[in-house]
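On clarity, I found the account of how folds are encoded harder to follow than it need be. What matters is that the chain and its backbone geometry are given together, residue for residue. The format is easy to grasp once an entry is in front of the reader. For illustration, here is how one protein appears when written out as sequence plus structure tokens.
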Amino acid sequence: MARSERDVIDFSALQSELQAAVESERKHERENNAKLRAVRQGVCYSQFRELVLCSHLKPLERSEKLAAPRKQPWNPVAPGNS
């Protein structure tokens, strides 16, 4: 029995389709969690939208924060601490 081309499985295409489906599910879950948090907080629509749109962002780790002193003070008019 000869196999036709439709019986051959393209594993690379299958793997890329699976990866896309997994990423889509992660995005849906992340955005849904952000929506639920926003509803619990009782925010207005613009804040709700911002929370959902930035749901992919993660807080910086302690090791990622710069240890160097700031070059520009927050308020250049205020007197310095030195």
